[in-house]
Structure formats: structure tokens, C-alpha cells
Design a protein that fits this description.
The protein is α/β, with parallel strands linked by helices. It has a single domain, classed as 3-Layer(aba) Sandwich (Rossmann fold), CATH 3.40.50. The chain has seven helices and ten strands. The chain has a six-stranded mixed β-sheet with strand order 6-7-8-3-9-10, sandwiched between helices. Helix 3 packs across helix 4 and helix 3 runs parallel beside helix 5. It starts with a strand and ends with a strand. The relative contact order is 0.20.
């Protein structure tokens, strides 16, 4: 499903290049659950943002579901992302001017699901994540843990083919973190491909394979 060949990312500082990722070659089969680990600054989040088509400035080749992402323009990449990818950001990225309900409804609207059907799907998600009482609140009215739960719910609500999760349990209690990981495990068993970044070895063990990054290199 994912094929990366010689993917690199760097920033220019005058004539110097500061590399964030170096010569990344990675294959992720459909239905795999991959955990990416490594110290801070290793390039983990950058790799996830490239796979999720949020980062446009990088070199190398990237195929997703047979599509040559490296040859596509920003608009085409954005359309693919909305249809195929659910992303859990480390900093939530909930829309501040939308309620919890509206944040969850948004990814469904991208998939051309009728409004009447979306209402039932959102209601199910609110119930599953035990946030029914928060549906009319805005992100600024939620705790960090509650925002994280909403962010995870938003990522999985449209049943994307690929879920990318950047420290998905970072602001959750251990019991909540385990619930999220069990949910990912269940979605994976149903065929969803998952790539997560984590520092937690227990959560990394939910993956079928662990990728280690160090100073931008796969080790």
C-alpha cells in the first residue's frame, strides 16, 4: 500500500543542508500495523506527515495505493488524503470554530455521505468514545485528554484505508490509552492499515512490525 524509495527531507541554512530524513526505503503492505520509534528529533513525525501528504517539500518517490504521490500536485494529493487517510495529530488539530459534533461530521462530508446517514455515524462515534455530553462544546472548552479522544474519533470515523497516528495516546490516562490501542487493533484486524509513532514500548508492541529511526535514518 505504501512504497517509499530514497525519500529525503532537508532544510537549507545558507549553503548548508540540514537533513531531517535520509534515504528512507520502506514498504507497508495493506493491512499492516507499523510502529515507528526513535528519540526526539529522529524524523518520526516528519515521516508521518510525508506519508499523510501534509508535507509537500521532500525528495524521492512515494507510491500510495498505486498512486505516484511524488508526481501529483497539491490539490490532487489533498483529495486523496481526504478519501484515504485518517490522521491523529500530536497537537490535535481540531477546528476551533467547530463543535465536537461538527469536527466529527467534517471528514464524513468529504466522503459524500448523505447528511441523514452522517448523523447516525457521528452519534455512534460520540457514544463509542463516551463524549456524547461534549458534542456541543468547542475544543477550547475541553481538556487535553478530551481533545485527544475527539481527534482519534475524527480520524477513524470515516473508516479510512490508512490511519496515521502521531503519539495518539500522548495526553491520555493509561486506561484510555489502552482503549485507543485496542480500537486500533480491532480496526487493523478488519483490514485498516495503521502507521503510528510512539515512544511507548507497550503501545509499539501492538504493531506487527517496529521501525526505528535515528538522526533521520532507518536503523
Amino acid at each position: 500500500m505504501i512504497k517509499l524509495r530514497n525519500v529525503e527531507k532537508f532544510y537549507r541554512q545558507g549553503v548548508q543542508k540540514t537533513f531531517v530524513l535520509r534515504n528512507i526505503n520502506l514498504d507497508v503492505a495493506e493491512g499492516e500495523f507499523i510502529s515507528v520509534m526513535g528519540p526526539s528529533g529522529a524524523g518520526k513525525s516528519t515521516l508521518l506527515h510525508i506519508i499523510g501528504m501534509y508535507d509537500q517539500e521532500w525528495g524521492g518517490e512515494y507510491h500510495l495505493n498505486g498512486q505516484p504521490i511524488h508526481k501529483l500536485g497539491a490539490k490532487h494529493r489533498a483529495e486523496l488524503r481526504k478519501k484515504l487517510v485518517g490522521f491523529v495529530f500530536q497537537s490535535y488539530h481540531l477546528l476551533d470554530d467547530m463543535t465536537v459534533y461538527e469536527n466529527l461530521d467534517l471528514p464524513l462530508s468529504y466522503r459524500d455521505i448523505p447528511k441523514s446517514q452522517r448523523q447516525g455515524v457521528v452519534a455512534d462515534a460520540l457514544d463509542r468514545f463516551q463524549i456524547v455530553g461534549k458534542k456541543d462544546l468547542y475544543p477550547s472548552q475541553l481538556s487535553g485528554g478530551q481533545q485527544q479522544l475527539v481527534a482519534v474519533a475524527r480520524a477513524v470515523i470515516g473508516k479510512p484505508l490508512l490511519i496515521l497516528a502521531d503519539e495518539p495516546t500522548g495526553n491520555l490516562h493509561t486506561s484510555q490509552g489502552k482503549e485507543i490501542m485496542e480500537l486500533f487493533k480491532r480496526l487493523n484486524s478488519e483490514g485498516t492499515t495503521i502507521v503510528q509513532v510512539t515512544h511507548n514500548e507497550n503501545w509499539a508492541a501492538y504493531g506487527s512490525r517496529i521501525i526505528h529511526l535515528s538522526d533521520g535514518w532507518m536503523v
